Amino acid sequence: MAPSFTSFFFLFSILFLLTLSNLHSAEGASNLRPSDCKPKCSYRCSATSHRKPCMFFCQKCCAKCLCVPPGTYGNKQECPCYNNWKTQQGGPKCP
């Protein structure tokens, strides 16, 4: 017996929903609240010798993006908004 149109439609719908859920995860969607920014940024900036400017920009980026990359350096791909926000000169705005 050949699969019906309904079966194909159902399978396509499931695959489409899975794709959307993966895109949402890849966008760095986070459950952070603005009040979570300071502790996350404190850890993010803990290894730098320029702590004050790091904290300023990290908190600004966190407030906009509601995401802070894990670790003290790198991993910006985890938060695309944080990663893609640039200065007027084209450099990274967020530490």
UniProtKB/TrEMBL annotation:
Protein keywords: Signal
Domain of life from the UniProt record: Eukaryota
Record keyword Oxidoreductase present: no
Keyword Membrane: no
InterPro entries: GASA (IPR003854)
TM stretches of this protein: none
Pfam family, one: GASA
Signal peptide interval: 1-28
Family: Belongs to the GASA family.
Protein's name according to its UniProt entry: Protein RSI-1-like
UniProt gene name: LOC103499343
